[in-house]
Amino acid sequence: MKARFALIALSACLAWSAMPASVLAAPDQAEAPTRLDEVVVSARRAGAPMWTVRRDGEGVMILVGAIEEAPRGFEWRPQALEEAAARADRILFPQRGRASPADVLRLMWRIRTIGWLPEGTTTADYLTPEDQARLEALMAGEKTDQWRRYSLLLLAIDLFKNKAGETDARSVGADDAVRRAARKARVPIRSIGVVRGADLIESLISAPPATHRECLRAALSAAELGPDALRLRAEAWRGLRVAEVLASPVDQAVDRCWPWGDPQIGPQLRAEWTEAVTQALGQPGLTLAVAPLRRLAEPGGVLDQLETQGFEVDGPEWKPITPESGAPETAAP
After folding, report:
1. Which three-class secondary structure state does DSSP give residue 73?
2. Alpha helices of the chain — where are they, by DSSP H?
3. Which terminal residue of the chain, N or C, has fewer Cβ atoms less than 10 Å from its own Cβ?
4. Phi/psi class of residue 118: alpha, beta or left (left: φ > 0; alpha: ψ in -120 to 50)?
5. The pTM is what?
6. What would the mean pLDDT of 245-253 be, rounded to a whole number?
């Protein structure tokens, strides 16, 4: 179990470290301008949530709201997004991580601190009686009760893998599709920031056990839905039902679990997206950005801020519909 958790934690760092680090030169201003409307039409054929952002006299951006995982066999149209990416002037990707061998060794050395609750405590010391009862019901079929001593983060990971269908999931691959097309067409690409592996690991090691309580609560809700949890979220994403995606327990867990849920790392990642998008919109031509859907559409997120700044934001509705607006409130799946 310790080795398994180490691999899970390391994958979060190393997945980011695989992000492209290249920052290529800006396009020659003498080149013919990209036919923006045609590119936008091509991108929207992909069927993923995306928005065009523009303001008179400034550049144009296509913001693609991505999710990470979907059930095996889930289909969408990445080829249309690849066609659009090949005709963009520049492309932005999420933050990349940078982990050194020393960071990896430190994580392995401290794995017991991360994977287990403090000596003499169990999950019942950190959860409400109601949440503990939900956990007991979900873990009733386990051969041992060792899980009561797991850290809340480790329990959340196990619930996703074994109860909410993540074991059979696969990557949706929106960023992979865009990256392939950009490299083939030699479109400049840039990750919007770098998070040091040392910072990621320190945030994981130093967090008190109760820090992961909300993460586990979201994982409980996803596990109670069973394998349908990932399917419902993916279908809402493909159907452009953005508020429904954000209301899903799977998406809420992504937001509440490490690293996005970390009180230091999370705000840094959010601020970097807002700054990167604002700067890109000041450049001529077309920028395409692949960002986590929640970072774009959450209350006070990138789309809300762009709208407040006077940009024209065109795409699927992202704000939850409330009874005050005259329509039924969006329900979580």
Report:
1. coil
2. 2-17, 36-44, 78-85, 101-109, 111-115, 129-138, 152-162, 174-185, 197-206, 213-225, 228-238, 242-247, 249-256, 265-281, 293-297, 302-308
3. N
4. beta
5. 0.80
6. 92
Residue 116 is classified by DSSP as B
Comparing CA positions, the residue from 79, 284, 277, 315 lying closest to residue 174 is 79
178's tokens: 């865009």
Q: Which residues 6+ apart lie within 8 Å of 44 measured at CB?
A: 50, 80
- Mean pLDDT lowest among 132-136, 141-145, 287-291: 141-145
Cα separation, 47 vs 63, whole angstroms: 13
199: confidence class by pLDDT, cuts 50, 70, 90: low
Q: What is the DSSP letter of 328?
A: P
Give the residue among 196, 266, 218, 204 at the shortest CA–CA distance from 6: 204
What are the tens digits of pLDDT across the range 89-140? 999 998 776 666 666 666 665 666 678 899 999 999 999 999 999 999 999 9
Q: Are 223 and 51 in contact (CB under 8 A)?
A: no
Give the whole-angstrom CA distance, residue 51 versus residue 220. Answer: 32
| Token reading at 88 | 């963009």
Q: How far is CA 197 from CA 101, 110, 163, 203, 261, in A?
A: 10, 14, 30, 10, 16
Q: Which residue has the higher pLDDT, 228 or 3?
A: 228
Residue ranges per domain, the chain? 2-325
